[in-house]
């Protein structure tokens, strides 16, 4: 079955939820590897296990399933001949106690004739091993009473440690004048007193360590050293006795390898089954009936990932003459959730799980095929529509009579007319395949398609026109109508525009809709709302436009002196004007000039301004050059 389809309908979310109900690692791994079952016998057994597990939970509460995190590892270590440490043996003992408790738990189920409880017969409780571990190991160490010899050795060790401490304290008091401090310290496992370096020869004993400054020597008094050697011998004997006991327990554990491995296997299996029972209780699920006749009937179905308080139960049936259901209705009306719920109920039931329904009769499917969401694939550079068509083609290649197909917004993502045609061609192919299929759409022509065939049926998601809220209820046998016009009217859409929209959408059929919506003669208009205006920038005339009014010969007033001059040359690109003032020419900013009398008013059109601006010498030179060429003669002209 397609992993992508299972992911799309939320199947893996259910597996994660189921995994959280487990105690053992192996059961969790098995759950994550679950897929819908294709063997009828196996599926019926799995469903019975789930039902029996839930019955046990309701009868006796949560089973005492141990985590068994390291049990198998420690067992293998024992079998290989490696000595188990006290804390490891203690963990094995806790596992055995859990086995005993689990057997007791299952025995209560046997009395109630719950078949799963008879797994109790497969659990083997090695009572002798558990009692020996309990007797010998306590709080992560070998207990004093593990053997009489160990008890005696530890008693001698305790006695000698007290004697060593007592003698060290006596040495401290005796040599008080030679010490830097008045307390006994431990260095390298020896009882020492802090002796001044210069008093080393005054205190009988062995230097064990020196302070960082070198001023203090930590010395083991001679009287203490004699007892310490005896104490070390006893500690060696203690270690040897502990090892003997640990090896004995390790060997006893290794000898029960077969029984313990069987216990581990049974507990992991029970953990898996009880996890399914816990999920059933959590979802208030029910055991679905299973059929091979390609029909489904759901009553009160709830999507398990939605809050129960906000989830509207779904009633749905397909098969028994109806192969396809076309669901229509407004956006956010719950169409997608509805088809996902149906597909998820099928996948859960075919995986041996209970389903959150009041009743369910579900057929086995060889595969669930889905096309939901835009499916856009950026890496393949596919558009939404391209990805949609690619997925649909894959579905049509795979579909078989015992498949379940769900498609959302069939034919969407392209030109409406062409999309409608593609949608109907896909429906026709699905109908011929013999598979069960559920599709959602907005196209009215697709609704009409269902009316052509007895084995295809319309359905709609109900919508409250007054509150503009979806009711999330599926009504099979009725085609859904678009609520867009009702929503638009409710939100203040003008009547005139609604009438126009209805006629464009439904043509001749629109009049009855217009009457039902009471749009005739409607006076509601579109109210204009004040909107801010764009402020245009003030038009600033180009400075040069102002300057260009000065032409050669203009009489101008020079500010601020109020002197009168005549323009020799109009303004340059920097706005400077050449002005003749009496017998000199001055370059002035146009801003200092004010037109007094324009040249056109003072002089004839063809007036020769050289009379005003040229010197007598320049005028004579011009005259001579006008008659013939004058070698070396130049005239400088004001530009």
UniProtKB/TrEMBL annotation:
Gene3D superfamilies: P-loop containing nucleotide triphosphate hydrolases. The lineage of its organism: Bacteria, Bacillati, Bacillota, Clostridia, Lachnospirales. One of its GO terms (molecular function) is ATP hydrolysis activity. Residues 403-419 form the DNA mismatch repair proteins mutS family domain. This is DNA mismatch repair protein MutS. It comes from the Bacteria. One of its GO terms (biological process) is negative regulation of DNA recombination. Keywords: ATP-binding, DNA-binding, Hydrolase, Nuclease, Nucleotide-binding. Pfam families: MutS_V.
